């Protein structure tokens, strides 16, 4: 109970930080005035520009935290992460195609749909390469993930050079792939919120299977889990979660790694509690980093992916060092 | 009363023949020991019997139902499997392990508390796996496997890494369990197998070389042939008592007392 309260307070604080931060910092008084319907220009900007952006950051972060928890559970590896596994990279290739090619579909649909196909395909590619290389241990998985991610990045760069012309600015695609929450309109935000809710509910259904998988393939199977079928289902769900995060937030590194770790330290390793708490930490982290991205170098804005990588990269090295030493 | 039937099992792994024409029939009431030299196919047979591997030929049935085609969830309820090596990916607590074992049971009232008491795990419930001793891990895993009350228990060298008093306590526990369910245990220690098991199945090169009551099997020359060694049989003066502390006052003994009381 106190944990729920602490997590909610943390979320609220991160959200407030996101609202206050920017190239001009707000005082609490003017924030309060804006939220309570101040008709001034600043009030309007906060309400219709900064608030949806902060909410979108929170939702994308929740998706990343959930995706990270799913992939760490499926791979039984605390270093698995959508960004390192190539899942996000695959999603980015799909999204690049959607951004650069006129497909005759509504852009949101094309972006989310192709991201999903890319994310799903890339995850399976990593899984198969790692299996061929001798199992799902940390080494094989990371090498497979890094190599698949490198290939995907090359494909994406090639696509960007080949497909961009005067009508599509390369700058748009590039800034998006570096990770950045686009400020959504209210209807776009509502769609993202609905999809995020759906994803969190779908992810929650995986909790018992992820717990059992943690016992190892054989014991999970002995405890009545159809491991092959469950792995397919979990990878599909994880890819969906990550694809939606990528479609709205670009490539945001390491949130999916850090959030599940923080969650494991606070609520333990069972996925029933781990999945939602990891989503909460993901939201918190992303709102904080997005605030920093907007406020650190005014008037420019640093891509969100760079901020999370600067925070999450050292964390990854820390976890890796602890694991290698063991 | 349920019966485990294995009929003409053949199992290949990477085109190598691991099991060849294995037939056996086990029932409740006798602890069956599965012994044989390294590579004889003991662990593979156990996995096929557990429904974890599908035989290339033949059929395993428990109380008439084919284990290979049964839905995984149903198989999980009916069969308990104790692996040789077990290392969870996450640092589950003893309570988590028991809960995961119980989650496969059909009954809505898992016997978590009773199991924790029987296996002397009550003070350890909140302790994570990484901070348990070898003996505590063996007890926790056995309890997690048995908490769903499976009809069949298959144990692959349980407690191979344990000290002798824990190992014999574990085997005593298994022979107690054999009164309520079918129990087959793979053992490396032949002497322990002869002492603790009611029946021995001796495997060699993927086939069953000998299947008999433990006392009979112990004197059979086919036992020597399977291991390609001549055993020396030493009669033990009964007044010396058992060489192994079979009646150690461990958790299993306490459980047996409780079982006797509930029978009365």
Structure write-up:
The complex is a heterodimer of chains A (326) and B (264). Chain A is mainly alpha-helical and 326 residues long. Chain A has a single domain, classed as ABC transporter involved in vitamin B12 uptake, BtuC. Chain A is 77% helix and 0% strand. Chain A contains 14 helices and no strands. Chain A has helices at residues 2-20, 28-35, 41-75, 87-100, 107-132, 138-163, 170-177, 186-204, 207-213, 217-222, 227-249, 255-267, 271-295, 304-325. The longest helix of chain A is centred in the N-terminal third of the chain and has 35 residues, at 41-75. Chain B is of the alpha/beta class. In chain B, the strands form 2 sheets. In chain B, strands 6-7-8-3-9-10 form a 6-stranded mixed sheet, sandwiched between helices. In chain B, strands 2-1-4-5 form a 4-stranded antiparallel sheet, with helices on one face. Chain B has helices spanning 42-49, 72-78, 94-102, 112-118, 134-146, 164-177, 190-196, 214-219, 221-227, 251-263; strands spanning 3-13, 16-27, 31-35, 57-62, 65-66, 79-82, 152-156, 182-186, 199-204, 207-213. Classes of the chains: A mainly alpha (326), B alpha/beta (264). At the A-B interface, helix 9 and helix 10 of A face helix 2, strand 6 and helix 3 of B.
Please write out the topology:
The complex is a heterodimer of chains A (326) and B (264).
Chain A lengths: L1 H19 L7 H8 L5 H35 L11 H14 L6 H26 L5 H26 L6 H8 L8 H19 L2 H7 L3 H6 L4 H23 L5 H13 L3 H25 L8 H22 L1
Helix pairs in contact in A: 1-13, 2-3, 3-8, 3-11, 3-12, 3-13, 4-5, 4-6, 4-11, 5-6, 5-11, 8-11, 12-13, 13-14
Chain B lengths: L2 E11 L2 E12 L3 E5 L6 H8 L7 E6 L2 E2 L5 H7 E4 L11 H9 L9 H7 L15 H13 L5 E5 L7 H14 L4 E5 L3 H7 L2 E6 L2 E7 H6 L1 H7 L23 H13 L1
Parallel strand pairs in B: 3-8, 3-9, 6-7, 7-8
Antiparallel strand pairs in B: 1-2, 1-4, 4-5, 9-10
